[in-house]
Amino acid sequence: MRKGQWQGWGAGEQAEQHYLVEPRALAGGGDIRHVSEFLRASGWQDKSKKGGPLLMESPDRAVRLSYDPYTQPGGWTIRSAAQGNQAEWWAVIGRQAPVEIVAGLTDALTRSRSAHAPNVWAPLQEQHWHTQFEGPHYTATSPDGTAWMHFRQDGDGNALWWSGARDERGNGWTAQFAPSTPMHLVQAFSAALASPEPVMRPRGRVPHSTKIRTTSVSVLPSQLGAWQQARIAAARAATWACNSVRNPRPRTTPRPHAGAGAFRAHR
Predict the structure, then answer these.
(1) How far apart are CA 106 and CA 46, in angstroms?
(2) Domain boundaries, the chain
(3) Which of 46, 72, 198, 249 could hold 22 in an S-S bridge, CB 3.0 to 4.6 Å?
(4) Distance between CA atoms of 140 and 182, rounded to whole angstroms?
(5) Which pLDDT score, from 0 to 100, does residue 248 have?
(6) Rounded Cα gap, residues 76 and 65, in angstroms
(7) Number of other CB atoms surrounding residue 249 within 10 Å
């Protein structure tokens, strides 16, 4: 275990011990707000019931995301209704999947598709994952053997994607994608899965495994808040820019009731 310390501490704050964990695929679930607050800042609506599982809906109401920790096996479910030429699709991800990897897919839901053809395997090859062919089936495995991405075709020619991670005790998670899941979303997931960047977990939230490496760091609450706000601000800025492109013309007609009554305080 290595130790480090962030610079620029403020007066009156008590530093907290956290750990940078790698490989990220074995870091455990993490704080689901990493996913939900980014979507909220991107215009998604929170449809959760009090005391119930997380449920969020995209601005166009086509995509729904849920996180349920109360059932077995529990975890993340993303479903989309059919839109134009895109058939309905789904993705199911286990609850021990790190939120940073889940966000690879969910963040991509808030962005426009790239003009380039998606390549699920490219991010894995860039990080030197091992590849294996078995007829029409294809598997990529992380260098340490703990994470994988698997592709196969069923008897009808439908593409089946399966991913996940396991430590030496068999603890871990899996993810499955519908044959109709857009490939740019699967690529965004694989890029987050293969990223060599460690993820941060607070003390007491680091899984016990000989397969992970940790670096102890002291972090101020204000620093954690600043990092979280930077991510939320980026989502808001991207949403504002996207809406500006879609609606470039400024409002030219006065709003109704623009007189003194418009300045009443709202609770």
Answers:
(1) 15
(2) 2-110+122-244
(3) 198
(4) 19
(5) 55
(6) 7
(7) 5
Convert the pLDDT of each residue in 247-260 to its tens digit.
Answer: 655 544 444 443 33
Instruction: Read off the pLDDT of each residue in 207-228 and give the average, rounded to a whole number.
Output: 94
Size of the chain in residues: 267
Contact 218, 89 (CB under 8 A): no
Q: 171: which 2 tokens?
A: 């603890």
Amino acid 43: pLDDT: 96
For 104-145, write each residue's pLDDT tens digit. 999 999 998 888 899 999 999 999 999 998 878 899 999 999
Nearest to 60 by CA among 83, 78, 76: 83
Tokens of 203: 């003390």
Contacts of 219 (CB under 8 A, 6+ apart): 6, 15, 16, 17, 18, 200
Mean pLDDT across the chain: 87
Task: Specify the pTM.
Answer: 0.84
The residue type found at 233 is A
Which residue has tokens 């939320």? 232
Token output for 37: 């607050």
Neighbour count for residue 175 (Cβ, 10 Å)? 23
